TrEMBL record:
This is Uncharacterized conserved protein UCP033199. Pfam families: DUF2200 (PF09966). InterPro entries: SP1917_dom_sf (IPR023204), UCP033199 (IPR014580). It comes from Emticicia oligotrophica (strain DSM 17448 / CIP 109782 / MTCC 6937 / GPTSA100-15).
Amino acid sequence: MKTHDERIAEMTFASVYPHYIAKVEKKGRTKQELHQVIEWLTGFDEHQVQAQIDAKVSFKTFFEQAILNSNAHLITGLICGYRIEEIDNPLTQKVRYLDKLVDELAKGKKMEKILRNS
């Protein structure tokens, strides 16, 4: 049986992306704001994100190709019952960083706070 971390690694970014859009748009945020958050975390602009979706890359590949923001470690708190800063698996932690940013966007947090610009 696959572990939680293995399932996350194999999941495609393309399979989760529509859920991110639906989540933020349902709360009155925009796809552009979602892309701003993704770009801040990964360095991928909108075209690069679309290329990742078209290629149906796994989260493992997605984050291997990403250039993680140097302030990503400032993303803390609970997501899906896990404390982000205590997640041992580096890939799972990066995926949870993204989940947390999407959550914060959907909850109406100000962009400066989400992007950890203090």
